[in-house]
Write a structure and sequence with these properties.
221 residues, alpha+beta, six-stranded antiparallel sheet, five-stranded antiparallel sheet, 6 helices, globular, disordered C terminus
Amino acid sequence: MRPLGIEGAWVDTPTVFTDRRGGFHEWFRSDRFCDVTGQGLQLAQANCSRSVRGTLRGIHYASVPPGQAKYVTCVSGAILDVVVDIRTGSPTFGAWEAVRLDDREHRCVYLSEGLGHAFMALEGDATVVYLCSQGYAPQREYGIHPFDPALSIAWPDGLVPELSEKDAAAPMLAEAERQGLLPSYAECSAYRRGLRAGQPGGRAAVEAGAGAVRWRSDWLN
C-alpha cells in the first residue's frame, strides 16, 4: 500500500499469481492494512455494484463521526475511481485523485472517513466490491455533484455519463459548505486518532483477534 496525494487515502497493488488455471491474489490483509494506516478496518457492510459503461456513481460521503471508510476494488471490467477531499480546513480541500481499478492489476483504494468517493465505469458490466466501516444510514449520507466546475474532475472523454437522479441533483461543493454539510478536517483527524488509539476497529482490536490468515503455499501450487 502507498499513500495517495490526499491524506487519508491509499492505493494497494497486490501481487497476482497466475498460471494456466487462472490467478490468485490477496485483495485485503488486515495485518498489512494496520501496519500502513495505523488502524484496523472495522467491517460493517460489504457492497457489490454492477455498472454499464459510462455509469457515474458519486460523489458520496457520510457525516463524521462515524463517517464511512471504504476499501474498494473492481473484480470485473474497469473503472476510474476518484477520491475527493471535501474536509473543510484540510490543506488539500477541493483536491481529487483518480486511480484506474480493473480486473487485470487488481488494485484497491482505501479512503478514510470524511473523504468523498466516486467512480465511472470504463467498460460494460463493471463490477465493484467494497468493504465499509459503517452500514448504510440514509440520514447521514450526502453527495456532491460530480461535474462541479470548482472541482474540475477529469472524467474520461468519449463516454456518455449515466447518473442517478439523486446524484444529478446533488449540490456543488461550495453550496454544501454553505449549508454546513461537509465534514471538517479536524473532526476526521480526531476520529481517526481515536481508532488508532485502540477504539473499535483500531490496532488493538486487530492484535487482539485471531490474527491474519496466512495462505499455505500449497494452496497456490
